[in-house]
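Field guide to reading this record: the first block holds the primary sequence, the second block holds the structure written as discrete tokens, and the final block holds curator observations. Each block starts with its own label. This record concerns Elongation factor EFG domain-containing protein, catalogued under organism Thalassionema nitzschioides.

BLOCK 1 — SEQUENCE
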Amino acid sequence: EGLRKAKSRLMEPLMQVDITTPEEYMGDILGDINGRRGMVGDLGERGNIKTISAQVPLANMFQYVSTLRSMSKGRANYSMKLANYDFVPPNVEEELKKG
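BLOCK 2 — STRUCTURE
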């Protein structure tokens, strides 16, 4: 009750996700990142390989390696590290409160 009166907000860890992929998988990977509530920061390239930098909530990154391998036929790679914490969007926070 005290938290409600204080109008506290729930925060979540955001991960910095860096992906390298052949160009033909870019659309599927970008769509998947968006579906995970990710925010794409930079798109780039290194030779024939495309790069994607995004921030994605940690809660939405579980099993990502399997999804990425499946989408890219094993040809894409990624790294992930903690970027920062941010407030959970109000609609997600409401869903969590409902349990």
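BLOCK 3 — OBSERVATIONS
The first helix runs from residue 2 to 5.
The helical segments are 2-5, 26-35, 64-72, 90-98.
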